[in-house]
What does this fold into?
Amino acid sequence: MLFERGQITTYRDVDMARVTFNEDLCKGCKLCIDVCPKKIVVIKDDVLNKKGYHPAGVVEMDKCIGCAFCAMMCPDCVITVEK
Amino acid sequence: MLFERGQITTYRDVDMARVTFNEDLCKGCKLCIDVCPKKIVVIKDDVLNKKGYHPAGVVEMDKCIGCAFCAMMCPDCVITVEK
Amino acid sequence: MGKRILMKGNEVIAEAALRAGCRHFFGYPITPQTEISHYMARKMEEIGGVFLQAESEVAAINMVYGAASAGVRVMTSSSSPGISLKQEGISYSACAELPMVIVDIVRCGPGLGGILPAQCDYFQVVKGGGHGDYNLIVLAPASVQELYELTVEAFNLADRYRNPVVILGDGYLGQMMEAVEFRDEEPIEKGNKDWATTGHGGKRIHNVTTSIYIDPNVLEAHNRKLQEKYKKVKENETRAEVVNCDGADVIVVAYGTVARVVKNVIKDAEKLGIKVGLIRPITLWPFPTEVFDKYAGVPKGFLTVEMSSGQMVEDVRLALNGRNRVEFHGRMGGNVPTQKDILDIVRQMADKQ
Amino acid sequence: MGKRILMKGNEVIAEAALRAGCRHFFGYPITPQTEISHYMARKMEEIGGVFLQAESEVAAINMVYGAASAGVRVMTSSSSPGISLKQEGISYSACAELPMVIVDIVRCGPGLGGILPAQCDYFQVVKGGGHGDYNLIVLAPASVQELYELTVEAFNLADRYRNPVVILGDGYLGQMMEAVEFRDEEPIEKGNKDWATTGHGGKRIHNVTTSIYIDPNVLEAHNRKLQEKYKKVKENETRAEVVNCDGADVIVVAYGTVARVVKNVIKDAEKLGIKVGLIRPITLWPFPTEVFDKYAGVPKGFLTVEMSSGQMVEDVRLALNGRNRVEFHGRMGGNVPTQKDILDIVRQMADKQ
Amino acid sequence: MAIVFKKPNALTDKPFHYCPGCTHGIIHRLVAEVIDELDIEGETVGVSPVGCTYNNYEYFSCDMVQAAHGRAPAVATGLKRALPDKVVFTYQGDGDLAAIGTAEIVHAATRGEKITTIFVNNAIYGMTSGQMAPTSLIGQVTTTSPFGRKPQLHGYPVKVSEMLATLEGAVYIERVSVDSIKNIIKAKKAIKKAFQVQLEGLGFSMVEVLSTCPTNWGMSPAKSLDWLRDNMAEHYPLGVYKGKDLEV
Amino acid sequence: MAIVFKKPNALTDKPFHYCPGCTHGIIHRLVAEVIDELDIEGETVGVSPVGCTYNNYEYFSCDMVQAAHGRAPAVATGLKRALPDKVVFTYQGDGDLAAIGTAEIVHAATRGEKITTIFVNNAIYGMTSGQMAPTSLIGQVTTTSPFGRKPQLHGYPVKVSEMLATLEGAVYIERVSVDSIKNIIKAKKAIKKAFQVQLEGLGFSMVEVLSTCPTNWGMSPAKSLDWLRDNMAEHYPLGVYKGKDLEV
Amino acid sequence: MQQIIISGFGGQGILSMGRLLAAGGLHEGHNVSWLPSYGPEMRGGTANCHVIISNEEIGSPIISCPNALIVMNQPSLDKFENMVEENGIIVMDSALVPIKPKRKDLRSFSLPATEKAYEMGHPAFAGVILLGKFIAETGIISSKSFEEALRTVLSPSKHNLIPDEMKALEFGMSY
Amino acid sequence: MQQIIISGFGGQGILSMGRLLAAGGLHEGHNVSWLPSYGPEMRGGTANCHVIISNEEIGSPIISCPNALIVMNQPSLDKFENMVEENGIIVMDSALVPIKPKRKDLRSFSLPATEKAYEMGHPAFAGVILLGKFIAETGIISSKSFEEALRTVLSPSKHNLIPDEMKALEFGMSY
Ligand SMILES: Cc1ncc(C[n+]2csc(CCOP(=O)(O)OP(=O)(O)O)c2C)c(N)n1
Ligand SMILES: Cc1ncc(C[n+]2csc(CCOP(=O)(O)OP(=O)(O)O)c2C)c(N)n1
Ligand code: SF4
Ligand code: SF4
Ligand code: SF4
Ligand code: SF4
It folds into this structure.
């Protein structure tokens, strides 16, 4: 298969914050990417979700400060943030 | 007959001004009366025009200064003024 | 029953609505139905109901749509051009199955036309002046007393079938005064309104009022549901007054004010030895087809008389489907067909072989 | 004749209007006819004509009323709910006898409904969705080529009779592409427009465009004049396509996209040994009643197929007036009657005694 | 002796059907005088509203188009777009313009449609027998506010000139009155300017004229003028709302 | 660890059907968050417009009524007059509110109707594929202004907040944007205040939200935010237009 | 069955005259209908109303053959005279209808109603005076019923005028 | 007569694929019709179009029995597979339609079109690749006509892409 399928992906850092992406809701609009002060949100080029989009996700999770900017900017309520 | 019929009544003063009332157009609203600076416009109680109104007319024509206020105020274009 | 009071048709409509429990009225002034608004304006403020003069007929019908969504008994009222402006809202209301009462006191048209009585909005109201497949229940009173009774009934029908109901009158009916006798208490049947959008209060999932169905199969299913409902209305609610039809030579079909003229014609014709029957549809939709089955064989045929160029006559023809001749006589422009003219035509028909 | 070009139905309507000399278009966006506006917006700015997006359908039809008063060829275009909003303006225009072309690319309703094709606005457009006694000339094309030809014709008819003309299409006709072949020059007949309100220039007494006649006799005279005109249109402009009807077992009546499905059914039925005829009304008003006289005796009867709950079928019944059975098959919600379903019904009819 | 005042040429001979003392008549005359003075009768097309003046096409001698209730600005738009070199004006009451026709006037204004609107504000629906208009004053008794207009129930009177002045396409808006000779003279100036704005192709122009409705106000014509001065003009201040410094 | 951000309860589970990056989604969420925070979901009835958000009744979990194009304020009026103790809001696009629905919004405002309007201004008709809206900017290319909006042909963009602020019944009007975290926070505050104004029965409240339409603007979602900031916000200045000093 | 057309200028109280008759008829237990002309022409134009008082069910409220006509201006007489049934009755104001009916098969009465009403200080009473004559000639309702009608038709604030109205009625009745 | 349904997600260029086929057919002198699905569901939903290429007059533009199906996502195959005529042809993208057709009476072809298109640097070319296969299998139009179609359907600003599009077509034709 060329692409992975979308899923609910939780990124966890025990001390800091936890973000969860409901990937099948994501439309790959990238708005979450620009607002992340830590620049750790990226588009997962190798994943294709149910809707046919490449969803966003987080790399270098340990840098996340749980500011929830990504979630506030996301037009599709993809992201849940815990801290 | 109780009332006279309305007609075209011209009031004339050779030196000063001339006002003509097309009495059948008059609705007896009296707006011309108040604006006349000389207070010479009156309602002719003894005349009943085609529409069933008592029309306005002028008394003491010699006092008329031809200011045309009555005509400007008249909503029914009853009055013509010459000077 | 109380005593007989002399009242104007329009005011009786308003009073009847109040008696039927209507506490919300949204309208926009237009002759010849303004007295409804005037009456409502006064009474609603006195009893704490809502009278609101909308900025237009378009707004008025949509306010009605909103109030009906909230489950209250609600009415609007207008006349021909105003009813044209309400067509979109009426189509929405029919689709969303909202109970409401719409009064149309018809004036002569088309265009700005005149303000005298007419029946030229039959097609608009009965066939559907708005877009899409829908039906309104259309009641056509012919007297002030009936304006009262049918207005009360209109609210019951609206609730029973979750459907807009129209009172179709003409300018004379709205303007005339006759004696009316009010009941002490009205037979109010309130439908189940658990579909209403009143705020769910945390007690149920959200209610939605809507008229859009993007999936064609879902919309078609909704369409079929509406058609089923209409069938039920047809079966249960069809009404007509039948006068003098058994053994009649000629049957005249007329509604509203015109039917009253025909009642005079019946007497005149009797003097000439002609028996004239009258079928007066009280529900214009559903149209009382069955009555026509019964009298289809009347010897000298049918005469439809309308204040229009010929609109209801199509439903008469459809009902008879070729089983008898159907003549038409119409007046327009605010003129009412005269006793004499109708009598002349009836006489000619009776004379014919 | 030029070469065949692949074009979308909606765009062909716009192009045809331009070729017919229309330089004024007022509209408001609505699916599925938006391409008309898009095409007009571009072309009018290029050629110095007027494309104006109105603030609403209500405003659009009244802008058309204004421009038509000035004597220019003018068009507007919309779809079902938008046409409902235009009803008052349409009634005014019909009364004031203003030539104009109104395009209705019908979508499924009622209410907001859906945007897929439908024919459920037949009553609204053909019987009169607006108030008063009036008629619109209603043309129902069935192919992209015909959209072109009938649009040009619509402008001529509008001018010839000083009457609004409606092009009634459905969503599929507007959205589909087919080859179209344009004439090098259009047969433009411009009516005499000395009634137009263009400023009298001191050369004549003032012209007035109006639709109000307060005196009932004057209004009735105007009504009768309109009815006379309608009679003339009926006599001269009724059109239908008749396919395979001579010797047919069953005749199907359908217009627009549905008629095309029926053409496929004709072939399918032939294979089963059933001869199916098609009457495709091209003018929905005036309805081609005479054609039905000719074929009233078809052995197995008539089947009317529509994308509606049954609207044109009333006109079919009126045309036949009981002379033959008239069956009905309808789909709603944006669904199109299928070849198979129509074939099944035709087969049943052919089988019946 | 010369004629110093007579019925203008741009009015026909037909007598007005308005009630005694109704200032619609004055306003008609002023419009006609301006048409005469600008010598544009032959180039002008007027649009009649639905309201007491529904048939003023019988009074104005230029070409006239009767419009549906509230739609005069749309009709005028169609006319003007078809006849860009002609002068197009609408004459509308406050029910017509400020209620049912709100969208049409707002959009004609914002489009900068090159038309002129004469907006006659008499704080009531005259034609249909005295219903509350959007412009009726707080406390005003009408057939549909029988206990007086109450803001909580009926909302606040719309100030149309102020509202339209917020729109870029509107280049000249003035509110005037015809309650006195002085104001009549001013009103005529404003109307003339409004037409001149159109003649110069500058954009949308409107004159709001405070007017009386003795019949439905239930007052004598003279009292009505007082009421206009004392109550209406207070809520609807006279003045230029757009284009103060406009030179035409 | 506690949840610091999740989908609000006042939204259902149904995924939005909007285009990628369309800020309608953000605005929906803000409205829902406010409903949650004020704990009024059960007392609220929302009115959906005709536009891309025609079916947001599927997304908001309070009771919802779908209205005809432009008529949401009238529908809301009917609802509120029938349910004076409930909270009623409309959610409308700029085609819906500023074009076809002009009369309804003006009159809801002037009546001081106790409803709250969320007015989403994206300077275009989204749903019907990118036609010019009354709010489209000068020069903006749309499917019906293919060579750019020109004032002489198409008129000027309507500033709705400024216009409605002239009406007495409108007690709170603010224009906000959702182009940045900072502005999203402000937008939410404004929406909350607008609902509070209604809860206190003060009159009509409206929040105009500048929003994007990446699809019909023909830009990426990120670029769209830039365009909003650089072009829209300049023509439509953010800020409070009515009720600056209002305490709720 | 009485079929009465009352006609005159707008503003003369024509419609109220009809209402008074209808209310009186109802008070006597008859069936009644009252149908006004209506419309923008009320403004300074003509006004008329159709009143039917009957013991049978009333068919059409529109009168094509009145058996009584009460007129308060010349155009009204000109318009309706020929419609009146043979032996019908016409009551008119002598000042307002100077040219008398041509038909000889009618009973017609001309009263100086306006003059008398002016004299009484209530020009609006002219109509009541004409009604008085009509009632006296036809006996359609009693003056008691008319008084009752005044009470139901007039707004309470005008009830103080009733004694004077009754005087006007009597003047007409005994003219 | 070829009756082709092309179906996939909105945004994949489904409608343009259909237009290219129709334009090609017209260029070869056939009668053609092209009917799109349309509506708000375009936004991220599914899209399809019906294309008929025929030498006879085209009756209904709506296809109830396609003899060819070109699919670019799984739901489309699921929806339309059963409608296809016996011996019909199905062309699909292997990455987007992982579960293959169940019917054995059809000729079905699965191509790595998306993969190849990505490789070519134009993800949008996937459709053209599928069309290439379809054309090769049916011979309905020539590649010359397809090139002509590109010229009429693409806006002039995109004509520079035509050589690459033709390469994509050839890849599909010869796959
Ligand atoms: C669609 C429609 N609605 C209502 C009416 C009835 N109508 C006629 S005039 C009028 C109001 C006129 O008031 P205004 O505009 O203030 O003018 P005025 O009569 O006071 O001069 C109304 C509501 C109509 N003719 N058409
Ligand atoms: C009466 C009517 N006219 C037109 C339409 C078509 N229509 C649907 S949405 C829309 C415009 C939506 O634009 P906007 O309000 O700006 O909202 P957006 O889609 O941008 O969110 C139009 C014109 C309709 N449904 N009904
Ligand atoms: S903002 Fe939301 S929808 Fe957009 S890419 Fe990020 S997670 Fe996906
Ligand atoms: S102002 Fe005119 S209408 Fe009024 S009383 Fe004087 S002359 Fe007569
Ligand atoms: S009703 Fe009022 S506005 Fe109309 S003509 Fe009479 S006074 Fe003038
Ligand atoms: S078309 Fe525009 S407004 Fe509509 S959902 Fe897409 S981006 Fe949003």
Notes: Residues 77 and 103 of chain C are 4 Å apart (CA to CA). Chain C has a mean pLDDT of 97. Chain C is about 40% helix and 20% strand.
